[in-house]
Amino acid sequence: MCKAAELGSIGILEDLLKYGCDINSKSIDGATALHIAVAAENVEITRFLIEQGARIDMYDTKASTPYVLDI
């Protein structure tokens, strides 16, 4: 999920979700796909992830949430 968000690919994200991937899965540094999309200022991916149920309250290893990254 994180790599697909980094690449900005809704198609890959859709496929991963279709095959049961967890939208809130974390990378090694604790970031979710939503953390990555917000940090990259990718509004399209951010909106897609939130619409699909990504949580805005998940912390990464730096104690940041996607919501905090957007401020």
UniProtKB/TrEMBL annotation:
The keyword Cell cycle does not apply. Coiled coil: none annotated. Pfam families: Ank_2. ANK repeats lie at residues 29-61. Keywords: ANK repeat, Repeat. One of its GO terms (biological process) is protein K6-linked ubiquitination. One of its GO terms (molecular function) is ubiquitin-protein transferase activity. This is Ankyrin repeat protein.
